């Protein structure tokens, strides 16, 4: 199941708004809220985002390590995209509400993928740093 082109446009716009408004405080906020949401799934993510679960957790970890000053080798635009995606993911007000069966996380998956287009190499570098 997919979302309409209008819903996709709105999700992109919300993601861009979140990304444009990122500052250090919002990075920390996103990491805390993202961790709570992920933990709320009890290790069983919704099927629509299951294939992105590793990436979602990496994004949240990156935001957390950045906000604590543990990992700062990340370009600001990449950090902003990651933070914007997390903020969209945790928002109770997104294009397709998460509680709607079957399609609830389709827009979240879209936004995570948009962030990954920007952040993939830096996210993988972070994963290597984290595992070292």
Automatic annotation (TrEMBL):
Coarse class of the protein's main subcellular location: membrane
Topological relation to the membrane, as annotated: Multi-pass membrane protein
Residues annotated as domain DUF1232: 79-112
GO cellular component, one term: endomembrane system
Pfam families: DUF1232 (PF06803)
Sorted UniProt keywords: Membrane, Transmembrane, Transmembrane helix
Subcellular compartments: Endomembrane system
Top-rank lineage group of the source organism: Bacteria
InterPro entries given in the database record: DUF1232
Region listing for Disordered, in residue ranges: 1-23
Protein name: Uncharacterized membrane protein YkvA (DUF1232 family)
Organism of origin: Spiribacter vilamensis
């Amino acid at each position: 199941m997919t979302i309409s082109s209008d819903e996709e446009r709105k999700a992109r716009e919300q993601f861009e708004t979140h990304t444009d408004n990122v500052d250090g405080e919002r990075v920390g906020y996103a990491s805390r809220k993202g961790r709570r949401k992920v933990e709320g799934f009890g290790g069983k993510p919704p099927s629509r985002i299951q294939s992105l679960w590793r990436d979602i957790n990496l994004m949240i970890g990156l935001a957390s390590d950045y906000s604590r000053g543990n990992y700062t080798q990340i370009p600001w635009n990449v950090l902003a995209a990651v933070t914007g995606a997390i903020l969209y993911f945790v928002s109770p007000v997104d294009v397709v509400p998460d509680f709607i069966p079957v399609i609830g996380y389709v827009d979240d998956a879209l936004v995570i993928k948009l962030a990954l287009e920007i952040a993939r190499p830096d996210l993988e570098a972070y994963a290597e740093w984290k595992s070292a």
